[in-house]
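Backbone geometry tokens:
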Amino acid sequence: MFKEETGMVKNATFIEDVSKHLKKDEKFIVACQSGRRSLMASNSLIAEGFTGVKDMGGGFTAWVECGQKAVLD
């Protein structure tokens, strides 16, 4: 999703972009800050045949609130 003046807009090349880096049977986690965008992204990927998709429910906000660490390199 991209933030535009009119609101959030779906990335038209999202599936194509992901497909360049991940195989449809590869396991991976989709996450965002609150969990809303990652849920939409996960659903889109699953609808396109990706089988190893896991959504981080609640996003990084919930992750940190549960006492987990988030380290950025």
Summary: The radius of gyration is 13 Å. Residues 36-47 form the longest helix (12 residues).
